[in-house]
């Protein structure tokens, strides 16, 4: 048995006090680490594609 095998099917804990952070906000928290040129533009394009897939304008 693998050392961590017993944890493979454990559900991640969900807070009863704090609602989950929206995906847009989670992605935005990494923006300050955009050390590569073009990273911000690439991220904006991915967000746009994601929003289109979900039917947002």
Task: Name the features.
57 residues, mainly alpha
Characterization of this structure:
Residues 1-12 have a biased composition (Basic and acidic residues). The chain has 57 residues and is mostly helical. The protein has a domain at 28-57. 39% of the residues lie in helices and 0% in strands. The chain is built from two helices and no strands. It has helices at 23-28, 39-54. The longest helix has 16 residues, at 39-54. The chain is extended. The model has no long low-confidence stretch (mean pLDDT 82).
Question: Can you count the helices?
Answer: 2
Distance between the termini: 49 Å
Q: What is the overall shape?
A: extended
Unreliable parts: none
Biggest sheet, in brief? none
Helix share, percent: 25-40%
Summarize the helix and strand pattern as letters: HH
Total strands: the figure is: 0
Short description:
With 57 residues, the chain is mainly alpha-helical.
SSE layout and pairings?
Layout: H1 23-28, H2 39-54
């Amino acid at each position: 048995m693998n050392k961590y095998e017993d944890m493979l099917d454990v559900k991640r804990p969900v807070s009863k006090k704090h609602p989950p952070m929206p995906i847009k906000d989670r992605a935005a928290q990494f923006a300050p680490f955009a050390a590569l040129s073009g990273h911000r533009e690439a991220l904006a394009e991915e967000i746009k594609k994601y929003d289109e897939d979900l039917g947002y304008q």
